[in-house]
Amino acid sequence: MSKETKALKYLSVLPDKKKQIANIYKDYQVTEHIEELYDLIDYQMKMISDQRRQIIADKHSDAWKHYYKSLEEYNESERRYFTEEELRARNC
Predict the structure, then answer these.
(1) HEC profile of 17-52
(2) Is pLDDT at 1 greater than 50 in this prediction?
């Protein structure tokens, strides 16, 4: 399974499941801690999702930059675009 399609280890927990877990451990006075941990997991999952979306958007932006360059700026032998210094040296 690829990294993109791999499911996260901790999925969002339904509110009634959280209450059930909290009721099991209510004698140990850890219900607030359990809630905070699940809130932290939800927050981190949201952050990871946002970061993945931003990375994909940045990759797409970088890919489209190549379409805006002219073919004179492309070095076919090395399969890359010339740097600014290389272009200035070629034009001199």
Answers:
(1) HHHHHHHHCHHHCCHHHHHHHHHHHHHHHHHHHHHH
(2) no
